[in-house]
Amino acid sequence: MSEERAKRDGDTSGSTRPDGADDTAADATTRSATPSGKPSGKRQGRRSPAGTEIAASSVKSPERSKSETATAVKPAKRDRADKPRTENIFKRLRRFFREVIAELRKVIWPNRKQMITYTSVVLVFVVFMVAFIGVLDLAVIKGVTWLFG
């Protein structure tokens, strides 16, 4: 059972490769897709402008240590004269739609089988809740008419 789960999840801990070689960190980083070849929905890593991947540990976190924030120089406040002019409405709309399209490209869309499954689960749940609330409403109506009737 656990071997089947390890195969399905792509876990190679405790298992040996058929050719007798051991898995190394380099092999682990090259195996980015799941064993079935389907995307896992997780990001693989950032790519640098040259197209090579950057390891997650080499990316600096947004949080800084206390010593870094103490030595950081804050930018001087700008006057209103230094404030750049806002873009016109058409440039802002164009930029907005470009950003929307860029975000939609990042979405992992469900395939047909997943979509049918999710839709049927939602429909069954809605039918169940409508029936449950309908029966509950009928019971309350009967109780009120019996009590005050």
Task: Explain how this protein is built.
The chain has helices at residues 2-9, 25-30, 66-71, 89-106, 112-148, and strands spanning 46-47, 53-54. Residues 25-31 have low confidence and may be disordered. With 149 residues, the protein is mostly helical. The protein has five helices and two strands. A two-stranded antiparallel sheet has the order 1-2.
Question: Could you write a compact summary of the structure shown?
Answer:
The protein is an all-alpha fold. Helices cover 50% and strands 3% of the residues.
How big a fraction of the residues is strand? under 5%
Q: What gross morphology would you assign?
A: flat
The DSSP helix count reads: 5
Distance between the ends: 62 Å
Total beta-strand segments? 2
- Major pleated sheet: 2 strands, antiparallel
* Radius of gyration computed on alpha carbons: 28 Å
